[in-house]
Every structure is written in C-alpha cells, then in structure tokens.
Write a structure and sequence with these properties.
By secondary structure, the protein is of the alpha/beta class. The protein has two domains: 162 residues, Rossmann fold (3-Layer(aba) Sandwich); 40 residues, no CATH class. The chain is built from five helices and ten strands; from the N terminus they run E-H-E-E-H-E-E-H-E-E-H-E-H-E-E. It is globular and about 55 Å long. 23% of the residues are buried.
Length: 215
C-alpha cells in the first residue's frame, strides 16, 4: 500500500512514534512522512497526525481514505487538544477516535474508537506515551482492515462541543494558588514547547515537573 503521514510540526513528540512505525513497516508498504500538504504524492491512505493545515476535498481526493487521529469521544470534543482540556476538567479516561477527514472539522465517519486510562499521577510524557501508543494501534488497525472497515456516522443525538487551540497563555500558573490545586495543569504542560510558568517580582519563572523514585 501507499501510505502517507502528514504531521505539520517536526518537533512534535509524536514524530518518534511515527518514525518507529515507518521503519518497522518500510519493507511492506510505500511510506512517506511529510510536513506540508504540497509534498503529498497520493496513494491509498493519508493519516493526518498533529496536522495544522486545512486539508481540502481536492487534497483528500488523492487518496482512497484520509484519516484523522483525534483524542476525544466524537462528536464530543471537536477542535484542538481535546484530551488536555478533558484532563484539566478531571477526566481519568479519554477516548481516541479514528475518523475520516471532512471539510467540517472532526465531523467525519468513525472507523474505530479506543479508551485510554490516564492515571491521576501521570505526567506529560507518560500521558503522551499512552496516547501515542494507542494512535499507533489505530494506524495498524486501519492498515490491516482497510478493505473491510464499515465506518459509522457520528451520532446526531449528541450536540458537538468545540475546544479552542491552546496557546502559551494556557500554561500560566497562579503563584497565589497551591500546587495541589494546579497539579493537573502543570502535569499536562509540554516542558519543551509550552512549559508551565508564572510571573513574579518582574520576572518569569518556568516550572518543569519530574517524578522521583525517592520517597
């Protein structure tokens, strides 16, 4: 099969998982990982993973299937970084959806959903590991079941909600509140790209949380 991956950000932590999958499957399929949709060559499946570009019907027409990996129980949680917003709301379980790309964001038919338990103590890298491994499992599912999947339309009985794009301001910590109150916010912040921070006495301070085996 000819399979393309479009991941806009070369620094996104999911790249290591995608590159490992590509290396393990290079002898079975014609594969490519690109950063811009103009570099897509067409084929059987296009996977959109952390894709920041608008993928039009014309773009999708180059492939038999164009699929999105989205971390929410669609139609709930359309939009940006849904699992982060849900963890901040107290979720201890998230849903990862594999769906068809459409012009209306996150509205396509569902190929498969999986649930992922997120321990309350899990930090950013641990949450990513759970999520990205599940994404790889869904990629395998799509490839292995390509000719026999029966996609399901999203439920009309559920009113969709939409999450906004997260910005560095969403990593702002309030120094007047306790760490316990803000633990979920600190633990979901990407320490490399969007670290937790607070402003105090005319300076900005970064918070990077690590686990220690010492008690």
């Amino acid at each position: 099969m000819k399979i393309s991956f479009l991941c806009s950000d070369a620094l996104h932590p999911v790249n290591a998982y995608l590159e490992k999958w590509l290396a393990e499957n290079a002898d079975q399929h014609a594969l490519e990982l690109v950063r811009k949709k103009t570099d897509l060559r067409g084929g059987d499946i296009l996977f959109l993973v952390a894709c920041a570009e608008i993928i039009t019907e014309e773009d999708r027409s180059k492939y038999s299937a164009s699929l999105v990996l989205h971390a929410s129980d669609l139609p709930r949680g359309r939009g940006w970084s849904p699992h982060i917003w849900e963890i901040l709301q107290g979720a201890e379980e998230i849903t990862l959806s594999l769906l068809e790309a459409e012009d209306q964001v996150d509205s396509g038919r569902i190929w498969k959903k999986v649930r992922i338990l997120i321990p309350k103590h899990a930090l950013w890298a641990e949450i990513n590991d759970l999520l990205f491994k599940a994404e790889i499992d869904l990629i395998d599912y799509a490839v292995h079941n390509f000719d026999r999947v029966e996609p399901l339309s999203q439920s009309d009985d559920v009113t969709p909600n939409y999450y906004p794009r997260r910005t560095p301001k969403d990593s702002l910590i309030d120094p007047r509140k306790s760490l316990q109150e803000q633990f979920d916010l600190i633990r979901v912040c990407d320490p490399n790209r969007f670290p937790a921070y607070f402003d105090h006495l005319g300076h900005r301070y970064l918070l990077k949380l690590e686990k220690s085996d010492e008690q």
